[in-house]
Amino acid sequence: MTNNNGGSRLLTPREVSTYLGRSVPALAQLRYRGTGPRFIHAGGRIRYRQSDVDAWLRAGERDAT
Prior knowledge:
Shape: globular
Distance between the termini: 37 Å
Strand order of the largest sheet: 1-3-2
Largest sheet: 3 strands, antiparallel
Low-confidence stretches: none
Number of helices: 3
Structural class: alpha+beta
Order of helices and strands: EHHEEH
């Protein structure tokens, strides 16, 4: 699904959880804590921009522990 958000694909929580290798409830906890990827709450549904998920992943990159 694409829309007027710069062409970035909108993903469902299930799609993001599969992409990240986490469960849907774990993704919900990240939303609740404010530590997960940016999301959109529209019409009672949660959606994630692919670009926001990728940016969140990049922000977590580390060269060393």
